[in-house]
Amino acid sequence: MTTFIRRAEVERRTGLKSSSIYERMAAGDFPRPIRIGPKAVAWDETEIADWQAERLAKRDASAAA
Question: Which residues, 6 or more positions from 40, have their beta carbon under 8 angstroms from its beta carbon?
């Protein structure tokens, strides 16, 4: 089952602010939100967790090199 999280929760979990989230989305480096209503969007919780895991894997690969 997919869980959607709103922007404030995405900010809390990632440590990124709104402007950084949207800049990274524009660059193709952050998951895109899903429209959940006429004026509301949310992110897939799993996609955010995968993005975080990818960051950790890149960090660990750089440390091992």
Answer: 6
